[in-house]
Structure formats: structure tokens, C-alpha cells
Fold:
Amino acid sequence: MKNSARDVMTTSFHTLSPENTIAEAVKLFRKATEEEKQKVFGMMVTDKNNKLVGMLSMYDILLFIRPKHIHIWGMMEDIDIEGLVEHACDRAKSIFVGDIMTTDVITVSPDTHLMMILDIMIKKHIRRIPVVEGEDILGIIYISNLFYHLVEKLM
Amino acid sequence: MATLTKKTILSHLSVKEAMRRQVIWIPKEENIAKTINLFIKYKVNALLTTSRDNKPVGVVSKTDVMGAYYAGLPLESPVEGIMSSPPLFCKPDESLEVALDRMKSRGIYRLYVREREDGEAVGILAYPDIVGLLYRYCHGCEYSHFSRKKPAETKRQIQYRVKDVMTTNVKSFRDNETLMQIMEGLSVYRFGAVLIKDQNSYPAGVVSKTDLILAYKHGISADIPAKLIMSSPVKSCDEEDLLEEAIRKMIFSEVHRLFVHRDTHQKIVGVFSLSDAARLKSGSCRACVSSRIKVDDHS
Structure:
């Protein structure tokens, strides 16, 4: 059985730039989902030299859209959701991917054992891990890649 | 001897009822770019800085980062060089009023919360959190503007209006003044944001500390004019608006302050911030203040 990162990683991946606006990022999420033929919930962020500088997930964008004082609004009946979303989108105009991306990115090398990757995903609650060699990005492992690879024998 | 002590709503509440439980921290060796990233990502105005052994050692605020922008520090500089230390703490069971008085007397905007001297920070208390609590309190009251229990006329008479509590000293800058000039103004007057006026002296926008630190992060020169980064239009309310409505508007639009206009949007006569609302220490009308004046015997 093949059992290292390079055996399960996806090599046709899309990336974001730290200078992309949040609106552009949302469009690129949609494009990546179509082209990779699987739902993309998070993408790598790379600089001009293709160096990995962060990750942006849908969760990060939702975190930004969430009203800051939701604990106050949570108990009110006269809440105007539509207005709140408009406000959030208005604020997002001056925000770039680089401003809200996660910069502490955990990466693995192409030779990392799959069980090690499984352990990292569970312990750190992450669903995708970039595979890098030196400064080069070789691919990305989605939790679904790992799942179907590991449970193949069950079927 | 009996003294008359004015009790406020806050006297009956403890810190833990108002504090936020999500404390965002950063190792002191991390750089300023990462600090700005966390400010924006978690919508906070300050981070707790920690040492290698995870002990809280300081606080880095948007004001500190603005100072770094002003001084021309590279974004890669460690946050240790600009943080203030040590962080100030209060306890979860302390009275909210005592905590608020300490913030006021020390001239600070937030206190971290922990149980014991060497314990972990379990929360953070800042002015907007106190306002949020007061707002919820008022919203449920029968005298509330939003309640149908009391006749509107009765409520109108006792409710505070923005003009009763606003600050009338509004500092403004021209839209062609540079970010450097604005930062000087912000640090001298200790404001969180300034009003920007166009060439005809009409209000055109607002530059806040958040706008400035974003410009810093985006590599924008501090010598550019304010109009290139200001938020527009100016978020304002009428001086006759009820305090409750103004607070609601601030919480809703996630701004820390509203400028106050008279008659027309073009005429700005004051500014009103969440910190001002918190310092008022009561809800948005006179009903609860008068009912809570109580004689304490200190003999």
C-alpha cells in the first residue's frame, strides 16, 4: 500500500494572492470548486515567487462576516439580518486576503507518512495540509483524499 | 454619618457578566504584520503578548501599531518593541463599577481577567462590552424606546438624547492633509478617529486607527493625503436622536463612534463614542438612575 503524502496529494490546485480582495477570493473559491471537481473550502496563499505565505478558508471569511457584537444581537427579535450582511460586505471592500489569512501554516514533506498526517489533521482540527519541498509547493492533501485512500479496504 | 451614594446599574453586576471569553494573544517575538492580521481577523483592538513560557507579559494595541507606522518601523519588527507592559488584570467576580473606575483612573481601555495572580487570562473587558451589557439591560426594560409597555410620551421625557452625552470638541482634518499629520493629531488628542473635511469644509469621511494600520499593512506611504484611505460617508446621527438608538447604530455598524449632526448632515457638532456611553455608567434613560439613588450608612 502506498503510504506517503505524495501518494494521495492533489497536484492540480488553485492559489490566492495576499493582495486579492475578499470578493476576488470568493470568486476564486467558486472557480476552484468547478475546475478541481470537488468542493474547495480552503486555499493556499502564495506570494509573487510562489512561496507559501498562508492559508485562507471559508471559515476565515465567515469569521469576518460574523457581527462583532453577535452576543448582543443574539437575543433580539427585531434584528435586521440583511442590513448586517450589507455592512459586513461594505467593510470587506478594504480588506485583502493577506489581512485575514492564517499565517501559521502546518506543512508536510512528500515523504511524510499518511498516519502522521492523519494524526496532525485530528489533533490540530485541520482539513487540508500543503505538501512542500524546500520552498516549492508540490500539492495539497484534502481530508477527503486521505479518507478515501485509507478506507478503501473497508469497501 | 449617612452619605448619599449614587448607585448605578453597574454596582450590581460583576466583571464576568460583561467580559468576552475569547482572548487573542500573540508571542512577543512575532512581528507587527502578524499583529495587524490578528486585529483584523478577530476584530479586536488589542492583543495580549506572551513570553516563551506562555506567560502574559504585555499588551499591544492599535495605538501602539499606529505609533510604529508613524515611526517608520518595518512590518517585520517584533511586537515586543512596541507593546506596553505589564498587562493590567481584574478578577471575574469583581464589581463592574470598580473595574470601570480603574480603567478610567489609569487611562486605559481594557482590562484582562484572571482568577489568580499566576493564572491564565480567562477574559477581556473593554468599554464596548460594558455598553453591550447595558444595552441588553435597557432593551428588556419597560421604559425602553423599543418596548410597548409604557406610553411613548412618558418614555420620551426621561430618555437621554445624544446631545446630553456627546463631546462637542470635534477634531477635524482637511482631506489633503497627510496620514502623518493625522497620526500626530490622533496621538495628541487621544482620539480613535478624526473627521475629514473636503475643500468646502463639508464632512467627507473618517480616518480611524483601523484605516491607518491597514494602510501600514498594505505598504502605503504615510505621506499620502487622507482622502485616499478615509472611510466614507461619515457615519453620523442627529443630536436629537435617543441615546438608545445611537448605541444600537454603533453596535450594528461595528463602529466605535458616531459623529453628531445638527439639522443637516453637513453640520457636525459633536462626537459620541462607545467609551463615552460606558462612562455614563447607566442605561439610556433616567429611569434607572433615579430609582437607584440609595442612602448608605458609613458610620
